[in-house]
Amino acid sequence: MKNKKFSLSLILLLAVSMILAACGGDDSGSGDGEGEGGSDQPEFINIATGGTGGTYYPLGGTFAQLIEEETGITTTANTSNASAENMAMIDNEEVEIAFVQTDIASYAVEGTQMFDAPIETIQGLATLYPETIQIVTSADSGIESVEDLAGMTVSVGESGSGTRLNAEQILEVHGMSFDDMDVQNLSFDDSTTGIQDGSIDAAFITGGTPTGAVEGLAAQVDVVIVPIEADMAQALMDEYPFYSEDEVASGTYGLEEAVPTVAVQAMLAVSSNLSEDVVYDITAAIFENTDSITHPKGEFITVDTALEGIGIDVHPGAQRYYDEQ
To answer: What Enzyme Commission number(s) apply to this enzyme (predicted)?
Structure first.
């Protein structure tokens, strides 16, 4: 009887051992099969944009839809305080993709200006379109030049934003500083609301034109864009080469004539933690569906100009896509 019990226990032990060995073999084989082929694809992707009144947010929504449709990865566009905060969000692994000005991306990688140390997890995906620096006011303000901002209440963009740094640099070449005015750090929406209700006199707004918040203002008051004249634009470009000459076209916001100004480039930065294959697929999702971009800035978003002025290392997945074109 004892021998029969021992034999039965031995048989059960062998059976369990064979089952465990088979399971182990399956797991090993499954791992080998996934290795290069997609186990690194994230379940979710988050895109940091900007405020709802700017250009980043609506474009981010379009990109999120394209990426989700083409890759199957659930993708969401999130509001934020834009460029500088977006770089910190990539570094903190809160988002995988972020809109940013080219100048701010360079500062982030270098660890200069508003960044205390280099951010090493940021790589470029693509440049998109010119981000026009618009000094917005109303016809009733009497402001006609940058110098007229002295003594006024002026929104220079949210704290840590690229807009704020643009404002500081533009004032600098005009021999001015924030000390010359009552500075407010407001979002685009709050800035244009402030101009409309008279709580502020003018606002710096960096964004693709037409900018939604300024369009909303133009529906209520006569909008004036303060010019940055050619000599001051040249001085700015000499000091900061990432700027270029630009203009706000006639007809925009009801303007009767084009207004000279300057611009930086908008770009997409991406986390270096994303795999080459995933970023390749993201890049393809955007540039093979540009006809789905309904925002006016969509006309600037092309694969032919995607690397112009990018200023930081390009993610290998994006570079592979461009190399194949």
So the answer is: 2.7.7.6
Check if the beta carbon of residue 127 is closer than 8 Å to that of residue 76.
Answer: no
Question: Which pLDDT score, from 0 to 100, does residue 123 have?
Answer: 98
Q: Which amino acid is at 302?
A: T
**pLDDT of 126:** 97
Residues near 33 by Cβ (< 8 Å), separated by ≥ 6?
A: none
Number of Cβ within 10 Å of residue 310's Cβ equals 21
pLDDT single digits (tens) 134-165: 999 999 999 999 999 999 999 999 887 889 99
Which residues 6+ apart lie within 8 Å of 287 measured at CB?
126, 301, 302, 303, 306, 321
CB-CB contact of 262 with 133 (8 Å): yes
Q: Enter the DSSP assignment of 299.
A: G
Three-state DSSP state, 185: coil
161: CATH: 3.40.190.10
Check residue 30 and give its pLDDT.
30
Q: Determine contact, residues 137/205, Cβ cutoff 8 Å.
A: no
- Alpha-carbon distance 255 to 278, whole Å? 43
Question: Which two tokens mark 113?
Answer: 């200006």
Q: What CA–CA distance (Å, rounded) separates 84 from 112?
A: 11
Q: Which residues of the chain have pLDDT under 50?
A: 1-38
Q: Are residues 151 and 257 in the same domain?
A: yes
Please indicate, yes or no, whether residues 146 and 116 belong to a single structural domain of this protein: no
139, 222 in Cβ contact below 8 A?
Answer: yes
E strand or H helix at 122: strand 122-138
97 contacts 87 by C-beta, under 8 angstroms: no
Pairing of the two strands 153-155 and 202-207: parallel
288 inside domain:
yes
Number of domain units in the chain: 2
Same domain (yes/no): 204, 110: no
Terminal CA-to-CA distance of the chain, rounded, Å? Answer: 78
Short-list 160, 87, 165, 101, CA closest to 129: 101
Q: Answer whether the bond into residue 210 is a cis peptide, omega within 30°.
A: yes
